Amino acid sequence: MRDIDKIVEDDENQVVEWKESWQDKYLEWICGYANAQGGTLYIGVDDNGNVIGLDSKVQKKLLEDIPNKITAAFGITCDVNLKSKDKKKYIQVEVKKSRLPLNLHGRYYYRTGSVKKEITGFELTEFIIKSTGTSYDAMISDIPRDKLTFEAFKKRYLNVMPGNHDFDEDLISFRLMQEDGQMTNAGVLFADQWNIQHSRIFCTRWNGLDKAGSVQDALDDQEITGSVLSLFDNAMDFVRKNSKKGWRKDKDQRIELPDYPERAVEEGLVNALIHRSYLQTGAHSQIDIYDDRMVITNPGGMYDGSEVQLLDLRHVPSKLRNPILADVFGRLRLMERRGSGFKKILDAYESEERYTDSLKPEFYTDGYNFFLTLWNLNYAYDKAQNKAQVKAQSGALSDREYILLLLRENPSVTQNELSEIMGKSRRSIQMIMKELIDSGTVERVGSKKVGTWIVK
Q1: Across-strand partners of 293?
Q2: Cα distance between residue 58 and residue 319, in whole Å
Q3: Would you say residue 191 has pLDDT above 60?
Q4: Model-level pTM?
């Protein structure tokens, strides 16, 4: 049994709900709990978690009525208990997760985050599929094997696992095809032919910081179709074509300065392909690249209904909407077969020289779509450089003023970068910086590698 004192400390959440009195509409909450991960409903507790108590006659009636109403509505039983705190009585209704989908008068409810929602359309289809212990990608397709080819898949697979192969046996082993020759949906998605129309990706490079920021809204766009391998390869090509990968020389090594860490983009695209919902007819994934960020949008929220923005991103358990797709991507070494993609994206960013906490990737779901925002690591630097160069070229700035402007616009800029931007020798920059530091005009905070400049 759950302890009310502990519940008060935790506040209302995905598995807890407080109600001052009973109403029959709360059967919807019970349905939602049973269809999710279970939960507890408290009757006689206010919105702040304070036990306000129930009248003795109400207690007796509810202890009889609630179990009967639950059984009549769903054919299940729940623990309904009378509890006490500070001599005040309240009722605790403990709901266990149901093995089969439950409905209330033909309507299905689900508890996600701290709210109850009715599930309909593709979400209901996906929910029923999940409740049977299978997944969309494991379902049998009506497209026969002889209508499909797998040349792209073969090429990548043989590159990873060279040797002689009975390819159809491999398709069976990977669960892309059944022994009787019937293809699964996963098999169709890996085929060279584009048979699942809404699996496509729309890619756009926008001009500015939003979708309508100028007369020429889009600088580049592409609709990508084909197998999931083609989607991945062509989407990566689009991102590479529409982003920069600069570098600088530091002593005897070359320091890469990409707009976006390639590992983070790869992981974001793989996650988009293996975790998206393919049940939404007419839906598609999107890659929108703006001046300062890239947003990868994916049909389908978190598979367990949770809100990713509320989770500890480094400790999110892997729950796969399409386990066969994930397994095959792992076999093809396009992703690790264990571990969180979220963590890899964060690690890829944090390893970059120009990373700051303000550029931390953002993960968000509205329940219907998943959004990954990757920030352009060079945007602030390029903006500062362009602004300062315009002023310097107009003769309005001295070298000292030029450096101060660059430091204000981009506090993480290095002396090597200042040298490159201004076309001055490293020695000249060092001398000016020493003067600024000695005079107290500029202060360095943090280490040489990840520190920042403060202009006073």
Answers
A1: 375
A2: 42
A3: yes
A4: 0.70
